[in-house]
Amino acid sequence: MNQEKEEGKKLSIGSQDITELIKARLKDFKAELVTSEVGRIISVGDGIASIYGLQGAMAGELLEFPGDVYGMALNLEEDQVRAVVMGAYEHLQEGDLVKTTGRIVEVPVGPELLGRVVSPLGLPLDGKGPLNTKRTAPVERVAAGVITREPVDTPVQTGIKAIDAMIPIGRGQRELIIGDRQTGKTAILLDTIINQKGKDLFCVYVAIGQNAASIARVAATLEEHGALEYTIIVAATASEPATLNYIAPYAGCAMGEYFMDQGQEALVVYDDLTKHAWAYREMSLNLRRPPGREAYPGDVFYLHSRLLERAAKMNKANGGGSLTALPVIETQANDVSAYIPTNVISITDGQLYLQSDLFNSGIRPAISVGTSVSRVGGAAQTKAMRQVSGRMKLELAQYRELAAFSQFASDLDKATRDQLDRGARLTELLKQAQYAPVGLGVQVAEIWAGTNGYLDKVPVARVREWEEGFNRYLRGDQKELIKSIETKKALDEDLFKQLEKAVKAFNRQFGVESAEVPPAEADKGEAQAETQAETQAETQAETQAETKGSAPADVAATEAERRRTADRRAAERRTASAAAKVSTERRAKERRATARRAQDATAKTAAKPAAKPAAKPAAKPAAGAKRPAGGAGSSRPGGPAEKK
Ligand SMILES: Nc1ncnc2c1ncn2[C@@H]1O[C@H](COP(=O)(O)OP(=O)(O)O)[C@@H](O)[C@H]1O
Ligand SMILES: [Mg+2]
């Protein structure tokens, strides 16, 4: 316009000249298709602008406001469009022009982002210069379809023993980390990221609604452990507009998806989605969307489902990449049944439930074994780990129940005591400091030792010391063994033998002897784990009975021993079937049965007094036949008694 005016001034006024000029102008005139639509702001406030005249705007379209500010069209109403402004909106006024761009919100993606801290719109925040990315990707994308996916089959090694052993996470899985504040949720995320050092998993850490200091601490921690170089941090602080907090996880997801699309593996963690839901609620209320339960808008489920659905394991035809998601939900007073927690629990493939009372009693990581699950991760678990950890989850869950129950009981039978002892040691064994991830081989060796009784002679208070020493010993003196476990990924007969030797050697060094004879066939794969406890109990009972049997035939002593063994057996069955549900009625029944059995036995011994001295190890078959309740003859002595 200005140019034209100037030209107009220069021209001498004459109708001929004007006609010439117009002709010349018309000759060069090209009608270009202008794709942008222009509207005007009606009102603006709280980061929301109402715009008149954008009839053609798309949902989620990027809008251009004056002053290089962008916004996103969210409410497409009959006579206006409501859009959120991403960034400063104080300078916007009624009547300002707004243009559509024809694009959905995009962020830069690519390996150039690794090691960087960026905003949800992909602007660098770390002062390390421009990003130099070559590609962008829309923040919202429809998740991969069923046909392009494949079941998870590879684990994400978190380096946290309790998780890798009992609640394994597969690549492509969505595992929720849920718990109150200060229960170590962020710590688990960071440890998992740190443990990927030297592995093939790229990480994206999305901070939503945290304060800037916490984000800086996360970045510093990752950098300190050499983990930042394969990690992207997407940061939306609590002081930023709700919109940025709202976009952050989608942006992080798009950055992770880039790696998946390249056939690589990526992990994206959202810390945390509770604040994401809050940001969305704030935004929705400002957009005048009708509030529903807890004032969240009606589509708050879709908010998280469409995000988490984008985690996937692609099949070979589609590159074979994967994106694993670890969303975090912060609960209030351990209330997992609130609106947002239940939503996200139902979307994810399992949850790691962290409890503040565990955390405060020093059990860290504070994973509640009974309520945490991984619905698909079991298939992805390394075989070696499956071989050794089979029974552990059950044992620990029973232990916690039993421990709570036995607080009120004064005299416990031996079986219950044994279970409590074992549980206490396993709990100690699974405690782990922050930033100290444990490799697969060491984890397998430690858990094998713990579940096979090699810890039973170590005082509970010294288990952590034992663990530290054993860990060092394995990584130092047993490098080869650890390496072969990690490369073979399964334990064979030979490896079991080597493991046993290593544990025994270390126990001698530590000043404790091995508690008991481990099962002879420690190599029967998965079945082994299940049968082990039984076999052990049997061997123990047998040896006990035998040693007592070969002693001078004191009828009273044998009797007492027999009763004790029977008691123990019955109690064992009791705890195994339902630890917490020991009804007094059943106990009485069993006691009656035991008494009856004891009477039987007395009758028998009285009838055949000569048979007793024969109960020597040498005369085993005879002894076996004569031995009544606690004998090795029947593996379930309590069974028939109970049925009576
Ligand atoms: N395994 C652990 N051992 C010792 N301290 C831990 C462990 N995990 C977390 N912490 C500490 O507990 C505090 C809370 O952890 P954090 O991960 O920030 O909790 P959340 O994210 O659940 O609020 C932090 O000070 C952290 O250092
Ligand atoms: Mg946290």
Secondary-structure map:
Layout: H1 2-10, H2 15-28, E1 38-45, E2 48-52, E3 61-65, E4 69-76, E5 81-86, E6 97-104, E7 106-109, E8 117-118, E9 135-138, E10 155-156, H3 161-166, E11 169-170, E12 176-179, H4 185-194, E13 201-210, H5 212-224, E14 231-237, H6 242-261, E15 265-271, H7 273-286, H8 300-308, E16 312-313, E17 322-330, H9 339-347, E18 350-354, H10 356-360, E19 373-374, H11 383-389, H12 392-406, H13 414-430, H14 440-451, H15 463-476, H16 479-488, H17 493-510, H18 525-550, H19 555-577, H20 584-607, H21 620-626, H22 638-643
Parallel strand pairs: 8-14, 12-17, 12-18, 13-14, 13-15, 15-17
Antiparallel strand pairs: 1-2, 1-6, 2-5, 3-4, 3-6, 4-5, 7-9, 10-11, 16-17, 18-19
Helix pairs in contact: 6-7, 8-9, 11-14, 11-18, 12-13, 13-14, 14-16, 15-17, 18-19, 19-20
